[in-house]
Design goal:
Layout: H1 3-6, E1 20-26, E2 35-40, E3 50-55, E4 58-65, E5 82-83, H2 91-104, H3 108-115, E6 128-133, H4 143-151, E7 157-158, H5 159-166, H6 170-178, E8 182-187, H7 207-222, E9 227-232, H8 238-252, E10 257-261, H9 265-279, E11 284-286, H10 292-304, E12 309-312, E13 324-330, E14 338-339, E15 345-346, H11 347-358, E16 362-366, H12 371-378, E17 383-387, E18 398-403, H13 417-428, E19 432-436, E20 445-448, E21 465-467, E22 472-474, E23 481-483, E24 497-500, H14 504-514, E25 520-523, H15 531-542, E26 548-551, E27 564-569, H16 583-595, E28 606-611, H17 617-624, H18 627-641, E29 648-656, H19 659-672, E30 679-692, E31 695-704, H20 710-719, E32 728-733
Parallel strand pairs: 9-16, 9-17, 10-12, 10-13, 11-12, 13-16, 18-28, 19-26, 19-27, 25-26, 27-28
Antiparallel strand pairs: 1-2, 1-4, 3-4, 3-5, 6-7, 6-8, 14-15, 20-24, 21-22, 22-23, 29-31, 29-32, 30-31
Length: 739
């Protein structure tokens, strides 16, 4: 019997209620607040409880939310339909959802939707039929039946599992069950994850690693909030250090849960095996490549608390942990932690906030920490431990700059003589090389030699990238794809469309022509479109089956190639332009990570960076290995301009298909901006990519001093604007993307 049936004697529109009380319910919809509903006195569900309630013409699953203010008059309220038998959201998670909504300025219900994204997890799956050994001996024992009975045991196996293991059809298994030779049992299709073996010792640690692990374990043991940076060079063993802290957190509380965040799905799959080896149990995974059933299993087991160790991408932060005690953010500097669509947030920043509000430690790990994190360490808000050397006998690679003005490639080529010579030397000694270029496809731009027309995506200002392997032109921003035309669509000149600039496919074409006997592979999200395909190439590289790997940033971090001794960066200047306030920092981080793939075992490594700007500060810092000097210069530049982390920044973006309405709204917003001490409005201005999928965009940047409550200012500003459905307005606190 549901709640509305248990409550008696009220008006019909309230479900027949007599004695009644009121609860607030938040729905996973883009709504700013919870709504009041009636329920029975004495049966009022606690905050965090999942319920079903009428919302408009339909029934919607929501969560009982802490009430704010006086409820509406009972006669105006509808009744909750049912209470769902599922673990409730914790008070800590409710607090985190409220805080995240306030910080990101997205509706409260939109944040809840990220928690409730697995729609079928609350109901639970239907039990599956499985079989165990035991029962009557079949009257007729064929070889196929005998094979099944030999495999059957006390451990339940489904029809498909038994048939596959025995090499027979499903009908053979069903026939044995019908004959009573196998015993049917019901099993949960979402089995619990095995608990980690906390008696299992980790790898032997170096003195530096042991000191770092001990320091972090002290913080974990105190059970207090502190953000701690593991600042270790590439190959220094940061992972083994924080796995010791993970083990400590799990030992201290038998119900404790730990979350390890990784920036890339490609890193997640091999890392799961590494964690399983450490704890003799597979962690619960969470990333976009999981099937619906796998996502349901992880969500359910996290919510009930039996999934004690979770490894996942940024959205794992919104899983319904009832007892989260530690978060690890690996590669904390990585831009992949920034969610740019839907609710805009940075998982690193929200991880620190979640730890601070719930009172548990957060570990940040990186070989190239973000300037924000470095400044927080310098100013005493975060702790830090250092790993200044690579583990065991490995040494950091020697990094050299190739001045392309003096050592230019042959006409129509992209590899300088110095880089070609270095690869020749590695091939002669059976060592591996990697050529890095963070450009997918064959060429980043296609234009007409006759009229100068540039090929762009329909309704967009984005260039179409030629993919010669597929013989198509592709937009990497919108996903638009088309065969390469034989004639220019502007002037109709035949065979006039020519590729401009190199992508990884074009570099691979040059490499294959130059080294025809070498085993050459290309790795990008186009050539390996899924994590498993990507792992095949990475495993082949790790096993020494590839001589030259030509790759984008998917190969830049988290990978260990023992025989890789040379990394050549084809275009080290690529990230230095564009007006992004973090351009220099991003370039340093990316190139540090990619050059750090060389020389990670016993053989020494070398990296060569082709550049037309050899005197650029970021490249000089890479060549000299003076990271601290680079960060100091970067910090001074940001401080002088009042940019993060020395000031606050928000992006207000306006989008519309109607450019006149967009212009009018942008002007009206600029005029309505409140005057406030310490706040400066930049813009409005067209975004660098003005049109995308037929939608035009303008942006204003709000720059403020660190002591300004930026969200309060933005709320006041937006409240003065008459909203219209023609123009969409979105806010990004601390933006990372300026395109």
């Amino acid at each position: 019997m549901n709640i509305s049936q248990r409550i008696m004697g009220a008006p019909a529109e309230n479900g027949g209620l007599g004695l009644q009380s009121c609860v607030s319910v938040l729905f996973p919809l883009p709504l700013p607040k919870a709504y009041d509903y009636l329920c029975a006195v004495g049966d009022a569900p606690e905050p965090g409880t999942f319920v079903r309630a009428p919302f408009g013409p339909r029934e919607v699953t929501g969560v009982v939310w802490p009430s704010n203010g006086d409820p509406a008059a009972p006669e105006k309220l509808k009744a909750i339909i049912d209470v769902i038998d599922a673990p409730p959201l914790s008070g800590e998670l409710i607090d985190f959802i409220n805080w995240t909504a306030d910080y990101t300025m997205f509706p409260l219900g939109a944040i809840l939707r990220m928690v409730m994204r697995v729609s079928d997890a609350l109901e639970g799956p239907r039990m599956q039929t499985a079989f165990v050994a035991g029962g009557a001996k079949p009257a007729r024992l064929t070889p196929q039946r005998k094979a099944v009975l030999d495999i059957a045991s006390d451990a339940p196996m489904t029809t498909a599992e038994l048939a596959s293991a025995a090499g027979v059809s499903d009908g053979v298994v069903r026939g044995l069950a019908d004959a009573g030779a196998l015993t049917r049992v019901d099993i949960d299709p979402d089995p619990p994850f095995d608990p980690p073996d906390l008696s299992r010792a980790g790898h032997n640690l170096s003195d530096d690693q042991q000191f770092a692990a001990d320091e972090i374990k002290k913080t974990v043991a105190r059970g207090e909030h502190k953000a701690i940076l593991i600042d270790g060079v590439t190959g220094s063993g940061k992972t083994e250090v924080y796995l010791e802290a993970v083990a400590e957190a799990l030992k201290l509380d038998p119900a404790a849960q730990v979350l390890i965040l990784l920036p890339e799905i490609a890193l997640t799959l091999p890392f799961l095996g590494r964690v399983e080896e450490r704890f003799a149990a597979a962690p619960a995974p969470w990333h976009s490549e999981l099937t619906g059933a796998q996502r349901r299993r992880t969500w359910r087991r996290v919510a009930e608390g039996s999934a004690r160790l979770v490894v996942g991408a940024r959205s794992a932060l919104f899983l319904p942990f009832p007892n989260l005690k530690l978060i690890v953010v690996d590669e904390e500097h990585d831009n992949a932690y920034k969610q740019e669509e839907g609710v805009i947030y940075h998982a690193r920043d929200l991880s620190v906030a979640r730890g601070a509000r719930a009172g548990f430690p957060v570990i940040l790990a990186s070989a190239t920490p973000s300037l924000e994190t470095v400044v927080n360490v310098d100013e005493g808000r975060y702790g830090a431990v250092g790993l200044p050397a690579r583990f065991a006998e490995a040494a950091l690679p020697d990094i050299g700059l190739i001045d392309m003005r003096e050592d230019a490639p042959e006409a129509g080529k992209w590899l300088s003589p110095a880089l070609v010579k270095a690869i020749d030397e590695r091939l002669s000694t059976d060592e591996q090389s990697m050529l890095f270029l963070n450009r997918r496809g064959y060429a980043p731009m296609t234009l007409c030699r006759r009229c100068g027309h540039k090929m762009t995506a329909p309704g967009s200002d984005t260039m179409l990238v030629e993919h010669r392997f597929d013989k198509r032109l592709v937009c990497h921003h919108t996903g638009f794809s088309m065969p390469k035309p034989s004639a220019c669509p502007e002037c109709n000149a035949v065979d006039s469309l020519t590729p401009c600039g190199p992508g990884v496919e074009r570099v691979a074409e040059e490499a294959r022509a130059r080294w025809p006997d070498a085993n050459i592979s290309v790795l990008s999200s186009d050539t390996a479109p899924g994590p498993r395909a990507m792992r095949e190439v990475l495993d082949a590289m790790q096993n020494g089956e590839i001589d030259i790997l030509i790759a984008t940033q998917v190969a830049a971090k988290g990978h260990h190639f023992p025989n890789l001794t040379l990394v050549g960066v084809v275009d080290a200047d690529l990230g230095l332009s564009g007006g992004d306030l973090r351009a220099g920092e991003r370039t340093y981080q990316l190139l540090s990570q990619v050059t750090g793939r060389a020389g990670r075992a016993k053989k020494p490594g070398r990296a060569l960076l082709q550049t037309y700007q050899p005197h650029a500060g970021v490249l000089q810092a890479l060549a000299s290995g003076d990271r601290d000097a680079f960060l100091a210069a970067e910090a001074e530049g940001r401080r002088s301009l009042g940019y993060p982390p020395y000031g606050r920044l928000a992006s207000v973006t306006l989008r519309s298909r109607d450019e006149i309405a967009l212009d009018n709204m942008a002007k009206a917003m600029r005029m309505a901006a409140p005057l406030a001490d310490g706040v400066e409005i930049l813009g409005p201005a067209r975004t660098p990519i003005y049109r995308l999928r037929g939608i035009a965009r303008q942006r204003m940047l709000v720059k403020a001093r660190r002591n300004v409550h930026l969200q309060a200012y933005l709320s006041d500003w937006l409240s003065r604007i008459k909203k219209t459905s023609v123009v969409r307005i979105s806010v990004d606190i601390n933006p990372y993307n300026f395109l």
